[in-house]
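Form 7-S
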Amino acid sequence: MNTMHRTNPFTEMQALHHRLTRPRPVSQPAWTPPVDLIEDRTGWHVLMELPGLGKQDIQVRVEGDLLHVSGERPAPERTESRVFLRSERRHGCFGRRFRLPQDADPGSVTAEFQDGLLQINLLRREETLPRTIDIRVG
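Output:
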């Protein structure tokens, strides 16, 4: 037997409004910058697009076996004489985490920032790099 039950459209609208307007948890980023992860024989490279940010807006740190990249893109300044007809660029806090490979040297992390592109380089530990063995003639 099929049972029908009535729904209250006002209750449904209230629930939808709550889902759409409730504040985000503090730890949830407002946006996520795109990343390329590249591996070569010497190590790994993280390329992250951060247009419109300055070096002072970005933090890179290594904690244990995690590489953390975080920061904030400020919201565009709004004034009475400046009316936004459309605003599609994301702003607010962002954060990305990457687990370091086992053969990575956490002390080798370097970061460069130019033209809105952050490049983080991470080298392999010296003892894990391929090496050529000299053959002695006896």
